[in-house]
């Protein structure tokens, strides 16, 4: 297993060209957040916006609209039960993120099927949380797209059939190869399975063991893969690394890290990473 280093950040986070506009940095469409889990999709959307995606649209339960706009006026809203609107927002996206707080009832399943029916091979599709659980339970086929799964160990057990205690690199890779997708297996020292390589994240802290931490990562993967779309899988690696690097820094002075704090720290963190490597350790949160 290859250990990720902060080098990945310097490779991926490039200065923005002068001659650019929001369309240069990709569109992210996020789908999730039922009546009970609105916070999950708001956290994911916040992460996508703060990662620098050009345009972010959140397809969620109508009841979350006010909270979304109050927290994150940069995001646009769509009702996730409006099949036609979701279909066109999914088709137009650089990256689609589906699953944070989606839930696992009949409505959730219908929405997930609509998303899967409208993605195309050139798009990135981040499948997280409830969407992984639903796919496994309903035995849904994986749509043709550049698929990135972000399961925790139980979600990976459901999807892969490999029990948590048996999730070895060899077994995980065999399932990854069958899926032909990128797998971000989240835990302490998260593992990332790409087509060619297995990476391990050597950083991260138990201060991250807080609800919404994975929703935030899913939004960051969405934001990075849209903004840095030419970087391919490296954008996923950079998002995973940045998520825990920021958390480690916050955890120097806090017992726990709140997921939205990671998102809010992203713009200044990314500015430091864009700078020369020798400068990047100097207190980016100050
Ligand atoms: N504020 C919100 O709205 C939140 C909504 N959430 C959403 O709630 C839905 C259900 O997700 P959950 O993950 O809570 O529930 P799940 O039922 O999918 O997974 C939790 C179960 O997995 C087990 N488990 C084993 N290993 C684990 C590991 N390494 N990490 C996490 N759990 C592990 C736990 O003990 C528990 O029994 C998702 O759609 C998620 O996005 C959660 O993210 C929590 C916050
Ligand atoms: N002890 C830990 N050490 C490092 N990272 C952790 C630890 N516990 C949780 N995390 C990270 O927090 C996130 C949890 O994801 P997930 O369980 O999907 O959260 P949620 O669905 O509540 O948002 C993952 O990125 C995981 O790697
Ligand atoms: Mg999760």
TrEMBL record:
Its EC number is 4.2.1.136
Where in this chain does the record put each YjeF C-terminal domain? Answer: 5-273
Q: Which cofactor does it need?
A: Mg(2+)
Q: Where are the transmembrane segments?
A: none
Stored InterPro entries: Carbohydrate_kinase_pred_CS (IPR017953), CARKD (IPR000631), Ribokinase-like (IPR029056)
Q: What does this protein do?
A: Catalyzes the dehydration of the S-form of NAD(P)HX at the expense of ADP, which is converted to AMP. Together with NAD(P)HX epimerase, which catalyzes the epimerization of the S- and R-forms, the enzyme allows the repair of both epimers of NAD(P)HX, a damaged form of NAD(P)H that is a result of enzymatic or heat-dependent hydration.
* HAMAP family, A to Z: NADHX_dehydratase (MF_01965)
User: What is the protein named?
Assistant: ADP-dependent (S)-NAD(P)H-hydrate dehydratase
Instruction: Tell me the gene name.
Output: nnrD
């Amino acid at each position: 297993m290859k250990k990720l280093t902060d080098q990945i950040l310097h490779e991926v986070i490039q200065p923005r060209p002068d001659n650019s506009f929001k369309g240069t940095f990709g569109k992210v469409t996020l789908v999730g957040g039922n009546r009970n889990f609105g916070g999950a999709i708001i956290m994911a959307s916040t992460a996508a916006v703060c990662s620098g995606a050009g345009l972010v649209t959140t397809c969620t339960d109508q009841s979350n609209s006010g909270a979304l706009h109050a927290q994150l006026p940069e995001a646009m809203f769509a009702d996730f039960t409006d099949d036609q609107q979701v279909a066109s927002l999914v088709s137009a996206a650089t990256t689609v993120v589906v699953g944070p707080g989606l839930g696992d009832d009949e409505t959730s399943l219908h929405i997930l099927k609509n998303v899967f029916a409208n993605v195309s091979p050139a798009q990135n599709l981040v499948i997280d949380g409830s969407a992984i659980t639903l796919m496994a339970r309903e035995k849904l086929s994986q749509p043709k797209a550049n698929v990135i799964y972000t399961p925790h160990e139980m979600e990976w057990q459901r999807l892969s059939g490999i029990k948590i205690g048996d999730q070895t690199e060899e077994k995980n890779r065999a399932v990854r190869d069958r899926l032909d997708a990128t797998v971000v297996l989240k835990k302490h020292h998260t593992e990332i399975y790409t087509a060619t390589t297995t990476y391990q994240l050597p950083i991260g802290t138990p201060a991250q063991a807080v609800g919404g931490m994975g929703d935030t990562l899913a939004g960051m993967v969405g934001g990075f893969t849209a903004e840095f779309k030419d970087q391919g899988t490296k954008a996923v690696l950079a998002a995973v690394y940045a998520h825990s690097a920021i958390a480690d820094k916050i955890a120097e002075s806090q017992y726990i890290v709140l997921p939205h704090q990671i998102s809010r720290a992203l713009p200044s963190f990314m500015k430091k990473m864009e700078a020369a490597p020798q400068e990047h350790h100097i207190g980016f949160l100050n």
